[in-house]
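anyone seen this seq b4? input:
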Amino acid sequence: MIHLTPQDYTCQPWKNGRGSTTELWRLERDGQLLARLSRAAVVEDGPFSVFPGIERNLTVLSGPGFRLTGGGIDLRCEPLVPVAFPGNVEVTATETNGQQSDDFNVMSARSLTRPQVLLAQNDVLPAGGLLALYALGPCQVNGQDLARDDLILATDPVHLTGNWPVLAVRFQDLPNL
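predicted toks r here
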C-alpha cells in the first residue's frame, strides 16, 4: 500500500493554459500516459483541454457543479456523481454561474479498460487491479489514518472505516507499480 499526501502532489498549468491542476499520481510507459489522478477548480465557463487517446472521468467534490457540452456530449456534473467522457472531444464547461467547483479527475489510456469510479464508506473493497482511494475527509484504510486529500494506492483488499467517504478508482489492467 502506498500512502501519498498533498506534500507529494505537483501543481502544473492546464494544457489549454486557462487554469492549473494538482497532479496526485501519474503512471507512464515509454513516455505515454497510462493513468493519471488530479484535482482542479472550474471557476468560469470555458473549454476543457483535449487529450487524444485518453478516457476521462470527472467528479465534482465541492461547489454547485456545471455542465459539459460539445461534440455530442451533454453532461451535468453534479457533486459526488462521477461522469465519464472521451478526452479527444472538445467540451466546454457552462452554467458555472461564477461559482467555483473543485473536481477530481481520472485519466486513462483508451487502450485500457475504463476505470471504475465510485464513492465508498465503511466498506470492504476486494483485491483486483490497482485501487486508488482519495479521502474526502479523515478516515481509515486497513487501520491506517488518512487525512482529507490523502491518496492510497493498493492492490490488496481494503477495509474502509470512518465518518467520511473516499472516492475509489479501480484500474483493471495497469502494469505493476
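Residues 9-109 form a domain with the Jelly Rolls fold (CATH 2.60.120.10). The chain has a mean pLDDT of 94. kinda curious what u guys think
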